[in-house]
TrEMBL record:
Keyword DNA damage among UniProt keywords: no
Protein's recorded name: Serine/threonine-protein phosphatase
Origin species: Brugia malayi (Filarial nematode worm)
Membership in a protein family: Belongs to the PPP phosphatase family.
Region span, Disordered: 1-92
GO molecular function term, any single one: protein serine/threonine phosphatase activity
Gene responsible for this protein: Bm1_04095
Amino acid sequence: MKQSQTSEMSHSQLRSKRHRTSIRASSGSRNPSKDSEKDEDSDEELVAPATPKTSDSVSSDDDDDNDDDDDDDDGDNDNDDDDDDDHRKGEIPDVIFNHPLVNDLLDRFMRAKLQNDNTINNINNDKNTGKKGTLKPAPIHAVDLKFDELRQLCDLAMNSFAKQKSLLRIGIEMLPITICADTHGQFRDVRCILSTCGNPSSRTYLFLGDYVDRGSQGIETVTMLMCFKIKYPTRVYMLRGNHEDANTTLIYGFYDECINRFPNDEGELLWHIFMMVFNMMPLSAIVGDRVLCMHGGISPHLNDITMIENIPRPSIVPPYGLMCDILWSDPDDRYPGWALSARGISFTFSSKVIKEFCETNNIDLIVRGHQLTADMFKGGYKYFAGGRLVTIFSAPNYLNMKNDSCVLHISRKFKCHFTIFRPIFPGANGAQNGKDTETQAAPIEGY
């Protein structure tokens, strides 16, 4: 009987689990959904945290019949990781931009201690104003940030984004890559992802947007990722989500976060500066010419993926059209073809549309975020269209929903596997977001 080790992560009270799948972006198999629906039958490896609090072993009877296959699968994946490292050595000229402000901010971000701070974290739902979507006070990793520092950092970020096209082309030489979706101001959990999956100094990351709103530390989340993006421009890539938008942030919390953190006129000015940065962000990415990534989905206006390159920036999010759909559309088989979205903006698209689009554009897999449906609560991901599209969500316990989250890893051989993060709620009654945490996150070394 195969056993796997479980560990509670003291730095964020998340249990991370890696799902290795037999899915290849290049394979002929297009229906991995059966594996994703039955977690017990998939090959799972728990990722040991840097500073485990407790450790115990668990076993599953469902693994008995698959021990040999699982062991072979593990060996294959381990070899893939070694092959990736071998290919990376001496082949990729890493670009590192050392800026005093960026280095100083990264040091503060990664070494911030856990504490209660209601000034930062007390942005609640307001029934009177209709504003909604943020969490109640909970322990956070408070970081001392100055207005002038953030303004200077935003200038650096805009210059960095301006050097990129609306469609990023990430070559195979940059694999393996870790793809993260919505994080929504959950700064602690973003730190957990980086600590678990590897330092951006040595691993490629692609973030699919929605860094702000609803969570309580959107400023820390987006600025930390911008710091990594500025310092490692060939390692860290950031796309725009539908929440990187003025209209959305006015409603769902980021505007309030800015003006509460920086009183007088500084908060509103800082919010405007962030909107300028968001308007410059790339919209989509193609990995190895075979994996298309964006926040929302495809569009009825998108016949060829090269059309994305022609979307001008800086640009506000329009109410309709190609750019709007890339940020807002969703897959949905309840309606054939294209249909108006219940969100009140953009469209939904069926499996048939996805398959036709992938065949026309020679795409093997579409990776997106933007959604957390009930069938994603366990695992944090969902396949669609027979494996041609996968939705991932990277914010665990989102709005106290007690959901899992995940990130997707793609190896140089285009093998895909997930690292799953499961929130832990000790005690009979559980705990609200973050309130069960007792220790601060371990800093990431070598950033």
